[in-house]
Amino acid sequence: MSYRKGFFYGLMIASIIAVLAIMFAWVFMYLWNWLIPVLFNGPVLTFWQALGLLILSKMIFGGFGHHKKHWHKHGGWRNKWKDRCSNLSDEDREKWKSHFMHKWNCEYNDETNTTETSENSISK
């Protein structure tokens, strides 16, 4: 790819991003001016105030760029707990299960406790 072609594509991408930002800010301003003054007696926004509010909310709530931890993409808390539980002995795992089953008032059917759970469910 030549230098001119790369420059043209970069300029085209930058202009598309600018047009999308302008459209998004305009939609945000329109919705704000339609709802907020009527519902909450709030102020009417200009275009530049709407754009600034969008950038501020992105900085506060969304951030910019990529973050190092993507829990939702890599299994996150499930893999973390699988790693922790894989190192438990059978006795510790059984203690863990019985603790949470008692805490949440649940019953579970395990191969070792099938007769106990069925008797407990009948007596309740």
Radius of gyration: 28 Å
Biggest β-sheet description: none
* Average predicted confidence as pLDDT: 79
How far from one another are the termini? 76 Å
What class do helices, strands and sheet pairing give? mainly alpha
Tally of contiguous helical segments? 5
Q: What is the H/E string?
A: HHHHH
The counted number of beta strands is 0
- Number of domains as seen in the coordinates: 2
Proportion of helical residues: over 70%
What global shape is seen?
flat
In terms of per-residue confidence, which ranges show pLDDT below 50 for 5 or more consecutive residues? none
Strand-residue proportion: under 5%
Please specify the SSE layout and strand pairing.
Blueprint lengths: L2 H38 L6 H16 L14 H10 L3 H14 L10 H10 L1
Helix pairs in contact: 1-2
Description of the structure:
The chain folds into 2 domains: 3-62; 83-123, no CATH class. Helices cover 71% and strands 0% of the residues. The chain contains 5 helices and no strands. Helix 1 crosses helix 2 (47-62).
Label this structure with key terms.
124 residues; mainly alpha; 2 domains
Short description:
This protein has 124 residues and is an all-alpha fold. It has helices at residues 3-40, 47-62, 77-86, 90-103, 114-123.
